[in-house]
Amino acid sequence: MQYEVNTPDQYIKCLDDDWRKSVLNQIRTIILDHAPELEEHIKYKMLGYGLNDGSDNVFHLNAQKQHVGLYVGDISKIDPAGELTANLDVGKGCLRFKKSTKLDSAKLTEFITKTISMWRNNQDIGC
User: pTM for the complete prediction?
Assistant: First the structure.
């Protein structure tokens, strides 16, 4: 879903108080805890995490109608063997978290920390 907002706080306030808001906030916390240098902003009508006001984004995060999407460049560059994304709904550049997804059993923190490490080391994670 797209929200007409200008700040991350406004974005969070626009979300319905349901499972998607909870999942989004959990993912958001993991990103901010593991990469405090990333700036949180709004880009493409969703949450963005990067430097220079979004010109160097690592992640995007968005609550859709049926899932929460975590967008990165190319999943196969980050997790070529699929070990970190096993049992997740994976697209070329996104992870989709549905209501039934168990975040506790997913290797999401490992995926996010690997992505951040690759980004910090100037490794290609882009599409």
Answer: 0.92
